[in-house]
Automatic annotation (TrEMBL):
This is Chitinase. One of its GO terms (cellular component) is extracellular region. Keywords: Chitin-binding, Disulfide bond, Glycosidase, Hydrolase, Signal. Residues 28-396 form the GH18 domain. Residues 430-464 have a biased composition (Low complexity). Residues 474-532 form the Chitin-binding type-2 domain. PROSITE patterns: CHIT_BIND_II, GH18_1, GH18_2. One of its GO terms (molecular function) is chitinase activity. CDD domains: GH18_chitolectin_chitotriosidase. The keyword Oxidoreductase does not apply. Belongs to the glycosyl hydrolase 18 family. Chitinase class II subfamily. Pfam families: CBM_14, Glyco_hydro_18.
Length: 532
């Protein structure tokens, strides 16, 4: 039943956007991000370069390199793992060496990511001399280690400490990068945000599309533990019960926005998640979407991060959990006791891939390789989610495993229902593994302008851009940067000066985390001694 509704949504979207643009003859892309830090996970969670299946990706992207603020040069973030120097593990060389197994495979290096922030990229992009230094260093590093290109993952221009001029400067940076790359045959891509405010603030869509070979849409993390109610990580379309800005947080709305702003469909690569978002329910009798929650769910045994869990941990855990499905979300969630997991399985990944392909998009990408079931723990074949993507976008590969359908006892929730449904009364055992991979996602911020006359409050968006606001005591800004809140370790603020007026943006860490001034991020409490 839900397939027909998805196809109806596709037809309505095509009608709204008008005639589709000319479709490129380029083969569909399957872009696979690799989180290099997963090599440090324990046991079966450890994922190294050699665990990558080179036949399931057209492009693989190594994450992350960083930016040296003092020199404006690209920098290696984990020299011991990334480089061969001083008996290092040479992951860069081994990663690009995978091309020997697949002559058509392209290997890229990503720079940025959430933890790198935005401020230093903003400063680099604003200065022609610093841009030139960065571009020269990037070309040298890519050529030295045999990468085929660079993926810009600046999260996000004009936000998180950036300035409005980032919108223009990011376009200039990409144009100059593309010019320098063209003489070396290097590819240039970018990972871009999906929230409506992010798109409007950060990107001049037609201009950056001219410079980029392809654009990786981060169409996930639409909901998560930073909210006070359950929500799916990657909903396909809006639910009738959603109102206001919440109606924009889904794949359909985000892709529609990028297309309507002038992005060529064949350059857009649809992002799909190989992990789920988890919640701890406030009331075990309310188990549906929008059910009240009190924070993230328990950490996975190997990913070890509250509020997020890999698919291989999900499929090996939820055998006796209650399963639910919503036709608008087009993906399942599972509940046991007070634990709630929203995720994609092979069937929902197939549905979303077919939807993206019907719009003429350029392919699909995953975040990320190491959280798919790469060891076939659950008996669905190695990389079942990535294999499902390949079956849609790269049909005709007889070596791909058969897609395993979800169990037949899944409860289908009506599109008009929200926080309802039965729940298992069984309890989930508390994990004894200490957390080691803190999240740094913040809630929606509130900006306060400190003027000589009075303090005025106006809404401003953070990275996650959700409608909920937080408030703190009136603190005057005296210099730019991120600062802790003495009265509440879970909150922090950012100050910047605009036209001789200080503007303060307030942020709130996810439940259970404290702001750590030493790393300018939300962190586990035991890493913030001043808050003990």
């Amino acid at each position: 039943m839900y397939i027909s509704q998805v196809l109806l949504c596709v037809l309505l979207l095509k009608t709204a956007l008008g005639a589709p643009a000319a479709v490129s003859n380029t083969k569909p892309k399957v872009v696979c991000y690799y989180g290099s830090w997963s090599v440090y996970r324990n046991g079966i969670g450890k994922f190294d370069v050699e665990n990558i299946d080179v036949n399931l990706c057209t492009h693989i992207i190594y994450t992350f390199a960083g930016l040296d603020e003092s020199t404006s040069m690209i920098k290696v973030l984990d020299p011991w793992n990334d480089l061969p120097d001083n008996w290092g593990k040479n992951a860069y060389g081994r990663f690009t060496g995978l091309k020997a197994q697949n002559q058509e495979l392209k290997t890229l290096l990503a720079i940025g990511g959430w933890n790198e922030g935005s401020m230093k990229y903003s400063k680099m992009a604003a200065d022609p001399k610093k841009r030139a230094i960065f571009i020269e260093s990037a070309v040298k590093l890519l050529m030295k280690h045999n990468f085929d290109g660079l993926d810009m993952d600046w999260e996000y221009p004009a936000l998180r400490g950036g300035v409005p001029e980032d919108n223009t400067n990011f376009s200039i940076l990409l144009k100059e990068l593309k010019k320098a790359f063209s003489s070396h045959g290097l590819l240039l891509s970018a990972a871009v945000g999906m929230g409506p405010t992010t798109i409007a603030s950060a990107y001049d869509v037609p201009t950056i599309a001219e410079s980029l070979d392809f654009i990786n849409l981060m169409t996930y993390d639409f909901h998560g533990a930073w909210e006070k109610q359950t929500g799916h990580n990657t909903p396909l379309s809006v639910r009738p019960s959603e109102t206001g800005e919440w109606r924009l947080f889904n794949l359909e709305s985000s892709v529609s926005t990028w297309l309507s702003l002038g992005a060529p469909a064949h350059k857009l690569v649809l992002g799909l998640a190989t992990y789920g978002r988890t919640f701890t329910l406030a009331d075990v009798s309310s188990t549906g979407l929008d059910a009240p929650s009190i924070g993230g769910g328990k950490a996975g045994q190997y990913t070890r991060q509250q509020g997020i869990i890999g698919y291989y941990e999900i499929c090996s855990t939820i055998g006796d959990w209650d399963m639910f499905f919503n036709e608008n979300v087009a993906a399942p969630w599972a509940v046991k006791g007070n634990q709630w997991i929203g995720f994609d399985d092979a069937e929902s990944i197939t549905t979303k891939s077919e939807w993206g392909k019907s719009l003429g998009l350029g392919g699909a990408m995953i975040w990320s390789l190491e959280t798919d079931d790469f060891r076939n723990i659950c008996g669905q074949g190695s990389f079942p989610l990535l294999s499902a993507i390949n079956k849609v976008w790269r049909q005709g590969n007889p070596e791909l495993p058969t897609i395993i359908s979800r169990p037949q006892n899944v409860t289908h929730i009506s599109t008009l229902q929200t926080s309802i449904g039965t729940s298992s009364t069984q309890n989930v055992k508390t994990s004894t593994i200490p957390p080691s991979y803190p999240t740094t996602i913040d809630t929606t911020s509130e900006s306060v302008t400190n003027s000589p006359v009075q303090n005025s409050t106006t809404p401003s968006s953070s990275t996650t851009e959700h409608p909920e606001k937080t408030t703190i005591s009136n603190i005057a800004c005296t210099k730019e940067g991120y600062f802790a809140i003495p009265q509440d370790c879970s909150m922090f603020y950012f100050c910047r000066r605009s036209e001789n007026v200080w503007i303060r943006y307030n942020f709130h860490c996810p439940t259970g985390l404290y702001f750590n001034p030493s790393v300018l991020a939300c962190d586990w409490p035991y890493n913030v001694p001043s808050c003990q």
